[in-house]
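Chain entry —
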Amino acid sequence: MSTGDDHKAVTISLDHTVRVRFAPSPTGTLHIGSARTALYNFLFARHAGGSFVVRIEDTDAARSEERFEQAILDDLAWLGLFWDEGPDRGGPYGPYRQAERLATYREEANTLVAAGRAYPCFCSQERLDGLRAAALAAGRPAGYDGHCRRLDAAEVERRLAAGEPAALRFAVPAGDVTFDDVIRGPITIAGDAIGDFIILRSDRTPSYNFAAAVDDAAMAITHVIRGDDHLTNTARQELLRRALYPAAAAPVYAHHAMILAPDGGKLSKRHGATSVGDYRELGYLPQAVVNYLALLSWSHGDDEVLGVERLIAAFEPGALSASPAIFDIEKLAWLNHQWIMGSSDAEHERLVGERLPVGTPVPVVAALAAACKSSLERYGDVPALAAAVLERPTLDDDTRRVLAAVGERLALFAELRRRAPQPYLAADEARGLLGDYRRQGKERLALGPRDLLMPLRQALTGRDHGPELHFVLAALSAGETLTRLAATVDGIAAGGDDSPAAAPAAAPPAVTTEGDRR
């Protein structure tokens, strides 16, 4: 394979309606790399005022499942990559599931056979496996050797009449295959590296390349934007297009670079989360995922926090890099934090609440949301952050002795909290209460803020560090606050079992997320 050496990114001239497609196979969930391909197609369709088509490539009946199709569509919608035509929306070029288009593929395959461009292949899987092993051992391309292409017509008819299973292979013409790519320039793939390939399996279902070539033509796809792992597939599909539709213009091709793992290998489960659903469950925002995927293989200068409208306005396939992109989870986490910081308080509270135990009081949600916003990288971390406040601390003996020695300070705070009648304090009310505590601690005990606040934090959370103390107080009911203080110092009355929100001594209930409640 060769590419143009002096190629530069070009801007596509739009003199016709743009139609792009994203064509996932419902054999698994939506991989983060596939999501980036869908994003590029979506951005270009919106940039050009064209159509974004979702086509389900489900001809692998043994592995395709409806649940995966729905999961893929759900993830695309979660990312905001809404399609104009697809299996659930219909459109003028349907159906949009390949399993519903089998008659079309068989008709087109018959056209190739009649023209002498395709032929039956009776080779067993064992023979094909042996050819592949021998070719690899000799360092040759593992293509088909053309055995059945050389059978005479009489033998072919006899074997077919006898009901012998046969696939259909495309007869690849001699010579190289060259096509243009707006990212990489002219690309040439040697014909002997392709070999005669199957277009219909022996069960009469189409191969990936055959179905894709037929559907791209039937659905009037004008631009094909996909990963560079499809370069050889593009050569096969171009050969089919030229054989079936010689008068039709070729799509504009743009093969973007792949996403690699930090170690330079293929991004896989051993590197952590790889599917869009994984990142959704971990608590990343769709805006952040879209933002990050757009930055891979596409430079935006110093701008990094980019919304979809800016991405749409700027997108050109020819501006994508031909160099592989390295997936950096820390960069994604940083971007996610930027989007969290830019979210409204109401939306942030809603997302925090989804990660807390069902039935968590509204004031508690508000306090915890405010407490974590400035440091939160992903919403999946909320349960652990909340537990540091909501779970009653287990104090070791040394801490108990330290707190017992400063019992008058905690008793003073307990007195002030008891005077505030409301079960929960708003954050500003809790800040005011701490102000009163500091003033009275200075007047009555001659102590500074650190000597007053550090023991209070330890008594309430068992920790020396954590969220700002007024958020802790806002998240704890009056009864729970007094109960925790009473557990450290004799003479402090506990909140009592009838406290409106006395927290249990055990850990809070298991977290139920939005996904669990659906």
Q: What stands out?
A: The chain is about 45% helix and 10% strand. The longest helix spans residues 427-445. The mean pLDDT is 91.
